[in-house]
Write a structure and sequence with these properties.
Layout (H helix, E strand, L loop, with lengths): L4 E2 L7 E5 L4 E8 L2 E8 L2 E6 L2 E4 L4 E8 L2 E4 L2 E4 L3 E4 L13 E2 L2 H7 L4 E2 L7 E2 L8 H4 L3 H5 L14 H12 L4 E4 L18 E7 L1 E2 L2 E2 L5 H7 L1 H5 L6 H4 L9 H12 L16 H4 L33 E4 L5 H16 L7 H10 L8 H14 L2 H14 L4 H13 L3 H14 L4 H13 L3 H14 L5 H15 L16
Antiparallel strand pairs: 1-6, 2-3, 3-4, 4-5, 6-7, 7-8, 7-9, 8-11, 9-10, 12-13, 14-15, 15-18, 16-17
Helix pairs in contact: 10-11, 10-12, 11-12, 12-13, 13-14, 14-15, 15-16, 16-17, 17-18
Bound molecules: heme C (6 copies).
């Protein structure tokens, strides 16, 4: 993990073509700098690659930096087969360097990543690879007076505090919700994660299929070894980040046999040199997905543990303090209900509404309820909550844009326009507010205004492709006087 966030390494040069967008992306090096060059619809965009993420396992992603904003390259390296499109880009009709890298992403992949806007997009400082303090806690005092009493030793912890050390990054869950007023970087090794955030995990069936246990953490929690060994066994028993694991099979075998001196001799001749091929098989995954590769349930071969039931259920991995339990669950349910799990919608809304008036000062609740009212078709309430959300977090471009869109839907054109402009000013790197304001003008046949918005973004980033296309389309519509036809490809990232 000491190489989790680095300058790009020396990968082979290549050209990758993509069918659905008719584009090609090339990788080249000049003066040791890696460049990704996108050629699409006769336009060219080339960026130097600033950071490489990962590489030791399935593959690497690559980030570009535009002023203080990071974006993912649409091209990734896969250890199994080389260069290809990044996950999620396979069938896109326009390929761009537009996927923002957020605070959440860097919380797990880097250290010292500071962001100074409430949406976690505006980078302040230079992130580095995962550092010692992520597992050992703040080290200032320890560096001045080295002693084992002023540094966290993970293996000496117990319970949630110990589990949280690896879970802060290895348990993504289906969503994670921060406690009021907290930020990811408030988490300190040695404390339970729930002092800062709650991780929520879905169980049950979705479209007739059992939702799989995605992570090593979830799988391991189901293993009889973990459940029955009274806390003796934890991630660090088998994974010591400081050991060199050259004779891995023997090392793991020694760990297993420290508890299982004599597994049934019929199936376990004394000559067995390893234990994992049957009890912790790998699924040989080759894509960069945040899912386990090695089965951490440590089962008897061929055995399946009992299902958790059919009903779709969202639960806290561990509960936070009593007074945050309903809040965090409600926010999580509403968030996931917008990503395919509509069943959770009314429950989440009911939970947050039951919290009553004090929640009107809690910016995350107010923002969640904005979406809830919008989805229930209660526009006046949605507007009231959107206004309040902006009042509570005036520097948030995400909230400002939501307000702009609700104002537009409510027919308050002038006010909507103001908020669109404000969202752009708050995060000039974010294409969605430009795109929506452009469409706002096109719908009102204000073509010149629309072009000005696109030009504003193109000044910020001349290397853009989609907006160049839009510009051409709008100019031709204006000349043909065809009125308010929208640009045909609003391939803008949706609001989170
Ligand atoms: C700050 C985030 C973070 C923390 C804390 C963390 N990991 Fe990781 N871990 C990662 C990332 C990211 C990778 C992917 C590899 C890479 O990018 O270097 C990884 C990779 C791994 C791997 C596989 C590859 C390798 O380097 O061996 C193992 C095993 C692992 N972690 C175990 C652990 C254990 C055990 C803990 C707790 C003691 C832990 N990790 C804590 C982020 C973290
Ligand atoms: C909750 C923490 C978390 C978040 C958020 C997260 N990752 Fe990861 N990521 C990990 C861990 C842990 C691993 C390694 C183990 C695994 O694959 O589960 C990993 C693996 C990867 C790998 C493969 C690394 C390798 O060596 O093969 C890439 C690439 C990657 N992540 C990119 C991203 C990007 C880009 C984002 C943000 C858009 C992101 N991750 C968000 C924790 C996270
Ligand atoms: C991914 C988590 C992780 C990271 C990052 C990490 N360590 Fe550790 N460290 C551990 C764990 C777990 C142990 C306990 C190993 C054991 O005893 O089984 C440990 C043990 C140690 C010990 C021995 C402590 C003792 O009392 O015996 C020292 C010293 C140490 N780490 C220093 C560092 C330094 C310096 C860095 C940064 C370069 C670092 N660690 C980064 C997880 C981590
Ligand atoms: C810290 C002690 C400990 C370690 C280390 C350990 N186990 Fe276990 N394991 C247990 C306990 C306790 C049980 C439960 C025994 C029972 O149910 O009677 C168990 C159960 C099992 C079972 C039966 C599972 C089932 O579903 O019935 C298997 C198989 C197993 N262990 C294999 C392993 C393997 C392989 C390793 C090494 C990768 C390992 N164990 C490491 C303590 C441990
Ligand atoms: C009983 C031993 C054991 C325990 C306990 C254990 N692991 Fe593993 N883990 C393994 C083995 C074996 C592999 C295969 C690769 C290797 O040898 O490191 C592995 C692989 C991994 C990988 C690499 C990706 C993958 O799925 O192959 C990650 C990440 C990881 N473990 C994280 C964890 C975390 C987090 C915990 C605690 C919840 C944990 N492990 C507990 C034995 C263990
Ligand atoms: C070739 C496949 C294979 C390998 C390798 C293997 N096992 Fe097993 N193991 C099995 C099978 C099959 C069962 C279930 C049937 C049984 O109980 O004999 C089992 C059951 C177990 C159990 C639960 C029943 C019992 O005997 O307590 C434990 C514990 C266990 N194995 C530990 C180990 C350990 C430790 C190792 C490494 C030294 C290991 N196994 C290597 C196939 C294997």
């Amino acid at each position: 993990m000491g190489k989790s966030f680095v300058a790009p390494e020396k990968y082979p040069e290549a050209v990758v073509k993509q069918q659905s967008s008719g584009s090609s992306i090339s990788v080249s090096f000049r003066d040791d700098t890696m460049f990704h060059k996108l050629t699409e619809h006769g336009l060219v965009a080339e960026y130097p690659i600033r950071y490489q993420v990962g590489g030791g396992m399935e593959g690497s992603s690559f980030f570009i930096q535009l002023r203080n904003y990071l974006f993912e390259s649409p091209l990734s390296w896969y250890n199994a087969f080389g260069w290809d499109l990044s996950p999620g880009y396979e069938s896109r009709s326009v390929i761009e360097f537009e996927r923002p890298i957020t605070k959440e992403c860097l919380f797990c992949h880097a250290s010292r990543a500071r962001f100074d806007d409430p949406d976690g997009r505006h980078l302040n400082g230079t992130p580095t690879s995962i550092g010692c303090e992520r597992c050992h806690g703040p080290s200032g005092e320890h560096v001045r007076h080295p002693s084992s009493t002023n540094i966290v030793n993970p293996s000496k912890l117990a319970g949630p505090a110990r589990k949280s050390i690896c879970e802060q990054c290895h348990l993504e869950g289906n969503t994670r919700v921060l406690n009021p007023g907290k930020d990811w970087t408030d988490f300190r090794a040695g404390e339970p994660a729930e002092d800062v955030f709650t991780t929520f995990v879905l169980t049950g069936e979705r479209q007739g299929e059992q939702i799989p246990l995605a992570s090593e953490v979830e799988q391991f929690a189901q293993s009889r070894c973990a459940q029955m060994s009274k806390g003796k066994l934890w991630c660090g028993t088998c994974h010591n980040p400081h050991a060199d694991h050259r004779s891995r099979a023997a090392e793991i075998r020694a760990i297993c046999t420290s508890c299982h001196q004599k597994p049934s001799p019929a199936t376990h001749p004394a000559s067995l040199t390893e234990c994992t091929s049957c009890h912790m098989p790998t699924n040989g995954k080759t894509t960069i997905a945040h899912a386990s590769n090695t089965d951490h349930r440590i089962l008897r071969p061929g055995e399946q543990p009992p299902d958790e039931g059919k009903k779709l259920k969202l639960s806290a991995w561990r509960q936070p303090r009593q007074n945050f339990q309903q809040r965090n669950l409600g926010i999580a349910e509403l968030r996931l209900s917008r990503q395919d799990y509509q069943d959770l919608w009314s429950d989440g809304g009911d939970l947050l509404l039951s919290l009553g008036a004090p929640s009107h000062d809690d910016s995350d609740i107010v923002f969640s309820l904005t979406a809830f009212y919008l989805d229930s078709g209660d526009l006046p309430r949605a507007l009231e909550f959107a206004r309040r959300a902006v009042e509570l977090s005036p520097q948030s471009a995400v909230r400002t844009l939501t307000l702009a869109r609700i104002l537009e839907t409510s027919g308050a054109d002038d006010k909507a326009e103001q908020q669109f402009v404000k969202a752009i000013a708050l995060n000039p790197s974010w294409k969605e507010p430009y795109g929506r304001l452009t469409m706002f003008y096109v719908r009102r046949n204000k073509f010149e205004e629309a072009i000005k918005v696109l030009d504003r973004y193109l000044t910020w980033n001349p290397n853009e492709i989609l907006f160049h296309e839009w510009r051409k389309q709008i100019l031709s519509q204006e000349n043909a006087g065809t009125g308010s036809r929208l640009p045909s490809q609003p391939a803008i990232p949706p609001t989170r």
